[in-house]
Amino acid sequence: MAYGLGAGRLDALIAEAGKNQIVKAMGLIDENGRVDIDALYNAAAAQMQAQQRLQVDIPLMGSFAFDEADLRELRECIARRAQ
Fold it and tell me: 0.70 cut: is pTM over it?
């Protein structure tokens, strides 16, 4: 259920995240709501090199673990959608 709610409100979630002062300071979301996927990918890839896997805990949704192939595929999917 949480996945469906999140997916259906993704634009609103990104807009709210863009208001966060830390997100603004890091330049992760621009004023038009575009997410800097390259910056996120590079940071996650660097962390992944040290740990072999990247684990992300999302409230109400659970814990997700990604390996390098998962991360690369996710980035490619997001990039295709952005075009």
Answer: no
Burial degree of 67 (CB within 10 A; 0-12, 13-18, 19+): exposed
Residues 37-46: contacts with CB under 8 Å, at least 24 apart: 37/75, 37/78, 37/79, 37/82, 41/71, 41/75, 44/71, 45/71
pLDDT level of residue 16 (50, 70, 90 thresholds): confident
| Burial of residue 18 (number of CB atoms within 10 Å: 0-12, 13-18, 19+) | middle
Average pLDDT over residues 41-50: 86
Helix (H) or strand (E) holding 68, with range, is helix 68-82
